[in-house]
Write a structure and sequence with these properties.
alpha+beta; four-stranded antiparallel sheet; 8 helices; 16% strand; globular
Length: 192
């Protein structure tokens, strides 16, 4: 189900999958499969990576699983009320050190994980699956629940599922779901 208010109105032509991607909050009861989630991880795995380190890691949580419940328990109060209806929750994690001897800090890890997350999200969109990345979660609790080592840094949690009617949502989420998308003017993004 496409929300016409959320299709990006671009100044220049961009790929349809980019125009169609948005972070909705109203999810249907339709389930996702582990193979669908792994397809998104596969897409993420092909993004650019400094020295081919591939510092992205994911924790998959289909609705009804222990991982889903653990991830739901980490979400901030503004995310949990609607994210509980997602078909899956997925934790994105950055491995912040290089694998080579001495494990020096990988200064590009967050950049590379961000690019992988973009590919993950665009793959979901191409499959008509809505993805909503959330920074509002307890990272320390996530580290504890999934026994993540010091070098593993939680980045975001994705809520994933098929879109449903915005009218299912309560305020303030209903208004946010129906408000047209906007972005800064391109001139504001160019430094020179």
């Amino acid at each position: 189900m496409k929300n016409e208010n959320k299709i990006a109105k671009t100044q220049y032509p961009v790929m349809e999958v980019i125009k169609d991607r948005w972070s909705g909050r109203s999810f249907s009861d339709r389930e996702l499969t582990n193979d669908q989630l792994k397809t998104m991880v596969e897409a993420a795995s092909w993004m650019f990576s400094a020295v081919n380190e591939q510092p992205w890691r994911y924790v998959l949580g289909l609705k009804g699983s222990d991982n889903f419940e653990k991830l739901l328990s980490t979400l901030a109060g503004g995310n949990a009320p609607w994210a509980k209806n997602a078909a899956a929750l997925v934790l994105s994690v950055a491995k912040t050190t290089y694998t080579r001897e001495g494990s020096p800090l990988n200064g590009m890890a967050l950049h590379d994980v961000g690019s992988a997350n973009a590919a993950f999200s665009l793959q979901a969109t191409s499959m008509n699956i809505m993805s909503h990345p959330m920074g509002g979660f307890d990272k320390d609790k996530a580290k504890e629940l999934f026994s993540l080592s010091e070098e593993m840094e939680p980045v975001i949690v994705f809520a994933l599922g098929y879109s449903d009617s915005a009218e299912k949502l309560e305020e303030p989420f209903l208004t946010r779901e129906n408000t047209p998308r906007t972005r800064k003017n391109l001139d504001d993004l160019l430094l020179a």
